[in-house]
Structure formats: C-alpha cells, structure tokens
Amino acid sequence: MADELNIPIPSVKRLPSYLRILRQAKENGEKNISATKLALELGLKPIQVRKDLASTGIEGRPKVGFVIDELIMSITHVLGWDNATDALIIGAGNMGSALAAYDGFSAYGLRIVAIFDKDPGKIGRSVGNLEILPVDTIYQYIKSHRVTIAVIAVPANQAQATADMLVKCGIRGIWNFAPKNLRVPEDVVLQRTDLAASFAVLSVKLGRKYCEETEGEVIESDING
Amino acid sequence: MADELNIPIPSVKRLPSYLRILRQAKENGEKNISATKLALELGLKPIQVRKDLASTGIEGRPKVGFVIDELIMSITHVLGWDNATDALIIGAGNMGSALAAYDGFSAYGLRIVAIFDKDPGKIGRSVGNLEILPVDTIYQYIKSHRVTIAVIAVPANQAQATADMLVKCGIRGIWNFAPKNLRVPEDVVLQRTDLAASFAVLSVKLGRKYCEETEGEVIESDING
After folding, report:
1. From the CA of A215, how many Å to the nearest CA of chain B?
2. Terminus of chain A with fewer CB atoms < 10 Å: N or C?
3. What residue of B is the nearest CA neighbor of A223?
4. Could you tell me if residue B219 is inside a domain?
5. What is the overall mean pLDDT for chain B?
6. Residue A215 lies in a domain
7. Are residues B112 and B69 in the same domain?
8. Least CA distance to B38: which residue of chain A?
C-alpha cells in the first residue's frame, strides 16, 4: 500500500494506464519493457514515465528496461489492488446499472458485490449478475459483509442524504457519480467522477481550437481523464 | 465561446458545478447569489469562486452578489453550451448504452443523436429513444447530419481503429470512455474519462488514510472529478 511512499496524485492517475500496457505486453509474452516504449504508447515523455515508475519503488536497468512482472506487482501493490476490494452501488438507474454491469472494474481489483435501490418496482430485478436489493437492508448488508466502499449513482437531490446514510453505516470510501458536490466527515474519502466537468473541457478546447485559428495552439489530449 | 478569454482548465472543470447550483437557485425563485454561498455549496474558498467567475467576465457587486441570470448566461456562453451540440456514440455495450440513456447530458447542451455498433445482433434494438445503427453507415450519417463530436465506448482493442475511422469521417472532438490512450491528429480534440484513474485515486487515498494514521493528513474531496 502507499504507506511508505507519497506518490503525487497525477502520477497515481497514470498508474492504471501503465498497468494496462504492462499486462498487454505480458500477454504477448514480453518480459521487459523500456520507459521509451511505455512513453510512446501513452503519449508521455520518457522522463515522466521514469519518474512515475520510480515513485512506485522500481527503477529500470540500462539496456534491459523494466522487468514487466516486477513492475506489475509494484504498481498493483501501490494502488492497493493486490486484493480485490468489495464495493456496493446505490441507485439502479441508468448510471448505476451500467456501473454494475461494467466488466472493466475487475481488472483493477474492484468487485461490485451488491446494488441497492429504493424503488419497489426495481427490487428483485437483475443487473448483470446482481439482484437489486431494497435500500433499507443496506445497513444489515454492510455490517455482515464488511464492505467499506460505496458507489453513489442516485439523482442529485438524493445524493447527500445517501452519502450521510452510507457514512452512518460505516462506509469509508465513497465514489460519487451523482452530479452533486457532497460533504462527508474528514475520516471518509470522497472521489468524484463528474461527467459534466469532462464535457466542459472538451467543449472549451473545441471552442478554442476552432475559434482561435490564429493562435495555432497545440491542444494535448488529457491523459488524466 | 472561449475565444476572448483564456480560462484555466481547472476553472473550466468547476463551471458546470456553478451552473448546477445557479439553476437550482433560479428554480427556487432567487435572483442573486453571493460568492460565499456558492463557495459553501461546493466546498471551495470564496476567493476561488470569485476568481473562477471573474474569468467568465462577470463580477459580483457588494451586498448584492451575482445576478443569477447574468451568471448562467455567461457560464453557458463560455462553455459553448448555449446551443445544443449533437454527438454520437460508438459502441452499444454496457458503457455506451448507459451513456445513450443517461438523461444528465441535456442539461449541458449535449444531445446524443445516434448510437452505432458493429454487432448485427444489436442493430435495430433500442437504447433509450435511439435505435442502434450499423457502424458501416456512420460516414453517411456524419456527413448528412453534420455531427462533430463522437463518444467512444468500444472495447480497448477496438478503440484506436474506431478513433481513426471517426477522424476520417470528419469528427473534430472525441470523448473517449474506452480504457485506452488514443492518438489523434493535432486538429482533433481528445478528452478522456478514465474510470480506472478515478478509482486509483480513491484507492490510494483510502490506503493513505487508514495506513498512515500517524500523519493525520486531511484528504479533501476531489471536485475536479
């Protein structure tokens, strides 16, 4: 875990991308990989790659580069992804159902174990392999299954009440997909995925590119999502 | 549009959050709002709010604060959201279907007008109000409907080929949800939403909070998503 290391957040955000490429290379039978190759794949500068990877405690060797297995293990460990983490989803609307059925989470050690909704019409239906459970059984569920992470995918006007309820149930990490800024106690970690913010950046960059033809500014892709 | 102003990207990312609160306040019949109130709602410092909003060309007045209507108009204009932008989605899997059915986009002027897939088994089925179209009709569609933005929601190994195809069809802005770093020509704007990067930050912050109890560091919620 990241207890001995204090990796900057921008580097943390890039680690999953390295992991993806390393796993792909491993599948292709490769044993070693150079910082240059990683940089090329990700559109980064080699020096950035070396810095990011050094922060996980691994350094490349001249001519050989990085040992892929070593690097995969180190990154997985830094991210705390070596053991799968159980999480539950609150809200079985479009977004919640999509997240429940999304098969990409398992690759980074996140296991969605349950999904809850308050709509009686949805209870008992299936999303992916999960049955939608009534939200008033959530306390019981969290206590008996010792889940510590919850994904909020309810409408904006229910998001704060949902967060408050989750905190009372003992949840320590909240991943918020609702379009709402939430307040949680200091000992709870809150991460937000704000689709509107991403689209705002795309809109403004497009506007700049096609309205400021004179400036000729190169707009880079945003690897940090 | 953002042609006269050069607003920093972190400010751009916060603009949709201001917009959300301003619209809510307007619905509640309010006419004016203070930077302090906006700051409180979003968990920001008032000085940050004033700076962000000044960058859109609007300044508050002493005692009165900001005129809500004025601010909504200004932010919407800066983001280029005063006219709805048409976009299409490539990939009708879990993620693509969720995005197609997601009702939150319209609030920020993004209108999903079509969804495409290459799987014959999916063609003709409905997602939300849209019928899934065959991907080999996409060139025709883009040309006749003059769409400039595309959302990529295909598996990682098809993402680069999809981006190349979209660029050839004349798409100028790509919003990539596939877990893959894409390369596009300089005149195309690429924005990535990387769920793995978000979860990495949550994981590492959780690890730091519960493994470094000694440090007592306050971990702030990430408003930038």
Report:
1. 10
2. N
3. B192
4. no
5. 86
6. no
7. no
8. A181
CA distance B143 to chain A (A): 19
Buried b (16+ CB within 10 A) or exposed e, A140-176: ebbeeeebbbbbbbbeeebbbebbebbbebebbbbbb
Residue where a domain stops, chosen among B78, B107, B128: B78
**Of B57, B78, B99, which one is at a domain's C-terminal end?**
B78
What share of chain A in percent tops pLDDT 70?
91
What CATH number does residue B38 fall under? 1.10.10.10
Mutate to test the interface with B, among A194, A211, A220, A223 (most CBs of B within 10 A): A194
| Residue of chain A with shortest Cα separation from B95 | A98
Q: Give a yes or no: residue A208 inside a domain.
A: no
C-beta atoms of B222 and A3 within 8 A: no
Mutate to test the interface with A, among B4, B180, B195 (most CBs of A within 10 A): B195
Is A222 contained in some domain?
Answer: no
Higher confidence at residue A179 or residue A148? A148
Answer yes or no: do A172 and B225 touch at CB < 8 A: no
Concatenate the DSSP letters of all residues of chain A into one string: -TTS----HHHHHHHHHHHHHHHHHHHTT--EE-HHHHHHHHT--HHHHHHHHHTTT---BTTTBEEHHHHHHHHHHHTT-SSPEEEEEE--SHHHHHHHH-TTGGGGTEEEEEEEES-TTTTT-EETTEEEEEGGGHHHHHHHHT--EEEE-S-HHHHHHHHHHHHHTT--EEEE-SSS-----TTSEEEE--HHHHHHHHHHHHHHHHH-TTT-PPPPP-TT-
| pLDDT range class, residue B68, cuts 50, 70, 90 | very high
For the stretch B118-150, pLDDT in tens is 999 999 999 888 999 999 999 999 999 999 999
pLDDT at residue B104 is higher than 80:
no
What is the domain-level CATH number for residue A159?
A: 3.40.50.720
Question: Which of B13, B180, B204 lies closest to A79 in CB terms?
Answer: B204
Taking an 8 Å cut-off on Cβ atoms, the answer to whether B94 and A78 are in contact is no
Same-domain pairing of B52 and B112: no
Q: Do A197 and B222 touch (CB under 8 A)?
A: no
Give ipTM to 2 decimals.
Answer: 0.81
Per the structure, the complete domain to which residue A43 belongs is given by 9-78
- pLDDT average, residue stretch B64-88: 91
For the segment B110-123, the average pLDDT, to the nearest whole number, is: 95
CA distance A146 to chain B (A): 15
Residue B89 and residue B74 share a domain: no
Number of domains into which chain B is organized:
2
Indicate yes or no: CB of B200 within 8 angstroms of CB of A3: no
